[in-house]
Design goal:
The complex is a heterodimer of chains A (338) and B (600). Chain A has 338 residues and is mainly α. Chain A has 14 helices and 4 strands. In chain A, α5 runs antiparallel to α6, α11 runs antiparallel to α14 and α13 runs antiparallel to α14. The chains are: A mainly alpha (338), B alpha+beta (600).
Chain lengths: 338, 600
């Protein structure tokens, strides 16, 4: 197991280098640069645009910009005086500098991280806690009215685009007045006591959680049902029944543990979407998260913010897969990593 | 903490972790004290506002058009949200009153202009304090200008505060007197000198160690709002990125009302940062905010809720945003030697009769009715009619007249074939591509009407929507396009349009960066732009700018189309409003007061 973890973490290094190189190349292929927007303002002086481009290194080819960025973000540097490599010990991750906000990318990400992580976690919990029992029930009572209705609803949920659902949620909130119209906190948030603050955030989270979770419920439920059905027909179930094991124990002890494996892998992937999964909902519902930051950075060509977001997604994906593999091994004694 | 989450453990761990995250989010300090702090001592040179006395208290729930990129005054003028946020916090020596369209005293109580019209002596208001109680002096003014002219800190104000590339000479006479000398006469001096003055005692260290550019970033605003001190009516209290900014009244503000009540009247200004227009407009239309800029397509339904939530929607008339079509008149060639524009097309584009004919051929009223649903105005020149100080109403206009257009084309040697298609005198079919940016719905609709209008004249136009940056690259660098459709937002002072009007300018759309003007009329416009800059006499300046508008209307290098009206919604509880002709109707946050303290 330790070897697996070490190997996965080592693979991460070349992977991050390759991905960051790709992102740099792709960003450089897009027309224009972060100064283009300013260029169209009549009262901005030409000389200033030039100064700005030089200051940012935008007048250099993309690979020079990449190397410049890399030398900023790696935790060590070449020290000419000592003629050796100097390690920088810094507990703050360094993702470079944002052209748009003129501050460090990590600072921007930290500003948006809590809101996004919170929404992702609540929506994942919401989706999984509802979808798994529903999937199991649909499998056990296959072809019943319940199964058919849940199937119909699942297809309906899958076919409604997220942003549309988000718009509907806004209109619902506005017309009933039961929920705040988008956002993460109320205008008076800063004047509230701590318990009231928690309630306020919870109130704001409810609608985006449902919007984001509904699509998840449908797909997870379908996977769960299919796997459960596969296992119900397995020979060991017949054997167990023949031996007289109680039906509940067969279903929830044996079948469930076997059927849940693919979902553990799916959970690993879901983990990687914690930072980026809510993009559309964040934008429509005025929710101050990472998705919004990245979307704007793409429009503004704020390369290093985009870079940071992609790299964090890669890291999350790797960690998610690793965790899934570990849990898989714990759940299923047949799986070993030797 | 996150790792445990994904493992779908139904145990209490997740719950505990969630609560911890909540605590992390909300636990940033005690709740803010909602009471108003006692006012500081009145400055000796207090400014008594000439307004109807009001009542202190209340909160204005506003909206800010986007996320500010920084609160650093050196960079804040590059985008509207930052500039707006900084204007609440910091003041300049002078201020621009948008309603009266004139420059008034602010931190300077008065000033004298020397005989040579190049020396300006400012007498600073005595007793003014920064929001942290420290006195404001001439050293702050000197520091601000030192930072702006410093090589280490590129900023766009430097060029506005220079004449012929030479910075102003700034001299401290005493603690309350500062003298500026300009290298030449500089017309917009008093307007541009009103830049936000920065607190030396807060920013000098960052200035000295070279990190001034990064000071007062959005991160600083979030974690240490108290470090951002100012002289403006409001002080930063909380900054929640992409959510809202909370300001409270500055206890040291230098203005009082006629009864001696300290301004501003409002206790707080809470501005919601718009990320999605739908969400904020919806919130306004349900009585949850005081102010909202409303897009044309939303006006009808927002109006419906007005009686229920006690607000009004105001038609603020034409905006400053102009829309125009222009032809590429660049006579140059690409580095590979091919001309930017095919020579026969260049001949049409450089013929003013062709451009005038096209202008007569555009049904502007049709665009206003059909595309803007009546919520706009036809445009005839570069300066929008709302800019009362500079707009010249007596320029040549081109009302829709296909007959006149045909006459002009015939005069210029164009002919029509049997199918009604237009040909030039060499027999070339008249056809061109109109490039525009794809992210603007209204602009594209205008383009489609234009295509149809041109078809009436036998001209074949193909609309080419492009990604914004691709489009910009075409019109600014590679010049491989035939015609373009775009909009620019004008500034109040015509000098702000220098790069558009002057033939050496970057945004001289039809033929930018010319070394010497390629036509006589462009040479005349250059002369006028240079002349208007070299006089302090407003009437004389206006004459030059008026003539410039006449020339541009006659030669139509840019064929102006329409301007969209702007709409604003405001709760009816606000008093002492002073809406200007152009710009947002609420700008005097230090003077407004609410006759009912609470929303809803």
């Amino acid at each position: 197991m330790r070897a697996l973890i070490a190997k996965r973490l080592l693979i991460l290094i070349p992977m991050l280098l390759a991905v960051s190189l790709m992102v740099s190349l792709l960003m450089s292929l897009a027309p224009g640069d972060p100064v283009t927007q300013l260029e169209m303002m009549p009262d901005v002086d030409e000389a200033y645009l030039q100064e700005l481009r030089e200051d940012f290194g935008l007048d250099k080819p993309w690979y020079v910009q990449y190397v410049r960025w890399l030398s900023q973000v790696v935790p060590f540097s070449y020290d000419a005086e000592a003629d050796g490599i100097l390690a920088r010990i810094d507990f703050k991750p360094n993702f470079g500098f944002s052209y748009h906000y003129r501050t460090e990318v990590w600072d921007l990400i930290v500003q948006r991280l809590p809101a996004t992580v919170l929404l992702s976690i609540t929506s994942l919990l919401f989706a999984w806690l509802i979808a798994i029992p529903l999937g199991v029930l649909a499998a056990i009572y296959k072809d019943s009215i319940f199964d058919r209705i849940s199937q119909l609803l699942a297809y309906a949920a899958l076919s409604i685009p997220e942003f549309f659902l988000a718009l509907l949620a806004l209109v619902f909130a506005a017309n009933t007045g039961w929920f705040p119209i988008g956002g993460f906190t109320s205008a008076e948030y800063d004047f509230l006591s701590t318990p009231a603050k928690i309630l306020d955030i919870a109130h704001h989270l409810l609608l985006p959680t449902i919007v984001l979770g509904i699509g998840g419920i449908a797909s997870i439920m379908r996977i769960m049902r299919a796997n459960f059905l596969d296992n119900i027909r397995a020979e060991y179930v017949i054997t167990a029944r023949a031996k007289g094991v109680p039906e509940g124990r067969i279903m929830f002890h044996h079948v469930f543990r076997n059927a849940v494996n693919p979902l553990i892998t799916a959970a690993g992937f879901a983990f990687s979407s914690i930072l980026s999964g809510a993009l559309l909902v964040e934008i429509v519902m005025n929710y101050p998260g990472i998705g919004q930051l990245v979307y704007e950075a793409l429009l503004q060509q704020d390369a290093f913010v985009v870079q940071a977001a992609v790299l964090m997604s890669v890291i999350m994906l790797m960690i998610g897969n690793l965790l899934a593999d570990i849990v898989l091994a714990l759940n299923d004694p047949r799986i070993r990593y030797d | 903490m996150f790792e445990r989450m994904s493992v779908r453990s139904q145990s209490g761990i997740t719950l505990v972790a969630l609560l911890a995250l909540f605590a992390l989010l909300s636990g940033c300090g005690e709740p803010v004290d909602a009471t108003r702090p006692p006012p500081g001592p009145l400055p000796e040179d207090v400014d008594v506002a000439e307004i109807a006395p009001g009542r202190q208290g209340g909160v204005f729930f506003g909206t800010l058009a986007g996320m500010p990129r920084t609160l650093n005054p050196l960079q804040s003028s590059e985008d509207a949200p930052s500039a707006t946020a900084v204007s609440r916090l910091l003041l300049g020596l002078t201020r621009f009153d948008p309603t009266r369209e004139e420059v008034l005293p602010a931190l300077a109580e008065r000033w004298e202009i020397g005989e040579d019209e190049k020396t300006f002596t400012f007498h600073l208001r005595r007793g003014v304090r920064w929001s942290d109680g420290r006195p404001f002096t001439a050293d702050d003014v000197l520091f601000t200008f030192e930072a702006i002219y410093d090589e280490r800190y590129p900023n766009r104000r430097k060029s506005e505060l220079s004449v012929d590339g030479q910075p102003f000479d700034v001299e401290k006479i005493d603690d309350h007197t500062v003298r500026f000398r300009t290298a030449g006469i500089y017309a917009p001096f008093l307007l541009y000198i009103g830049i936000p003055i920065m607190p030396r005692h807060k920013l000098y260290d960052a200035y000295a160690d070279g990190s001034l550019m990064r000071a007062w970033s959005v991160r600083d605003a979030q974690v240490a709002p108290e470090s951002i001190v100012g002289t403006g009516p409001l002080v930063l209290e909380r900054f929640r990125p992409a959510e809202r900014i909370v300001y409270r009244a500055n206890p040291h503000y230098y203005r009082v009302d006629p009864e001696g009540t300290r301004l501003p009247y409002i206790d707080r200004l809470i501005e919601r940062i718009v990320q999605s227009q739908q969400a904020t407009t919806l919130a306004f239309a349900h009585g949850q905010s005081d102010y909202e800029g409303i897009e044309v397509r939303n006006v009808n339904w927002v109006k419906r809720n007005a009686p229920r939530y006690d607000y009004s929607v105001y038609d603020r008339g034409p905006s400053q945003a102009t829309g125009f079509i222009w032809f590429n008149q660049n006579t140059g060639s690409s580095p590979r030697g091919t001309p930017y524009v095919a020579p026969h097309k260049l001949e049409w584009f450089r013929d003013s009769r062709f451009r005038q004919a096209v202008s007569y051929g555009i049904d502007r009223q049709g665009i206003v009715e059909g595309v803007l649903l009546g919520r706009g105005q036809p445009l005839w020149g570069p300066i929008s009619p709302v800019n009362r100080s500079w707009y010249n109403p007596d320029v040549q206009r081109y009302p829709y007249d296909p007959g006149r257009a045909r006459e002009l084309l015939r005069e210029a040697g164009f002919t029509w074939d049997a199918a009604g298609r237009l040909h030039d005198r060499h027999g070339n079919r008249v056809a061109f591509t109109l490039a525009t940016n794809e992210d603007n719905d209204i602009r594209q609709a205008v383009g489609l009407v234009f295509v149809d209008n041109m078809k009436q004249l036998g001209i074949d136009v193909r609309l080419q929507p492009l990604d914004f940056n691709t489009f910009v690259a075409k019109i600014m660098n590679s010049f491989d396009y035939e015609a373009g459709l775009l909009g620019l937002t004008g500034s109040w002072d015509p000098h702000g349009g220098w790069s558009v009007y002057h033939s050496s300018g970057r945004l001289h759309m039809w033929f930018p960066n010319q070394e010497t003007p390629s036509t006589d009329w462009e040479a005349r416009v250059d002369e006028l732009m240079e002349a208007q800059l070299r006089t302090l006499d407003l009437e004389e300046r206006r004459r030059y700018v008026f003539e410039m508008q006449e020339i541009l209307a006659r030669e139509v290098p840019m064929i102006y189309t329409v301007t969209v009206n702007s709409y604003e919604g405001l709760q009816n509880r606000w008093r002492n409003l002073d809406p200007p002709q152009m710009g947002s109707m609420v700008w005097n946050y230090d003077e407004i007061w609410a006759d009912t303290l609470f929303l809803r």
